[in-house]
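#lab-general

N.A. 3:47 PM
ok so I finally got the sequence cleaned up, no stray characters, all 142 residues accounted for. can someone with queue access submit it? mine expired

B.Y. 3:52 PM
send it over

N.A. 3:53 PM
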Amino acid sequence: MHLSRTICNQPRKVAPLHSISSDVRTKYLNTSSRTDLRWRGSLSDLDEAIKLHTVTLAQCTPGHFPRFEYINDLATSLRDRFQQQGTLSKLEDTIEPHRATLAFCPPHHSFRSNYINDLAVSLCDRIRWQGVVSDLNEAIER
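B.Y. 4:20 PM
back already:
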């Protein structure tokens, strides 16, 4: 796995994994897997990232504060898979997690505008593929 090389090659930038909380460690591993995919384009790395995001969400209780960030990470990886495969059903998989991110994200969270943009991009992708006008209205209203 390329993630282990990433961690080993950056010892000054990253705290030892055993010294940080499991939430932060899991998020770091998920993000690193997704970043590895973007650099190399490997679908197996993307599938691994999606599995890690799913495991992370399964371990979070519904009231866990950064849960919406984990949902957004999953949605972003799902969108990456859509971009790699170009399958409409993969695009459909991205939209609901983006909506869930916004439903759980506090109104004044510093990244809320990014999450709105993520949903808008997925809706615009669906508009391009299907021409669904209600998606355009939702993208504009957000």
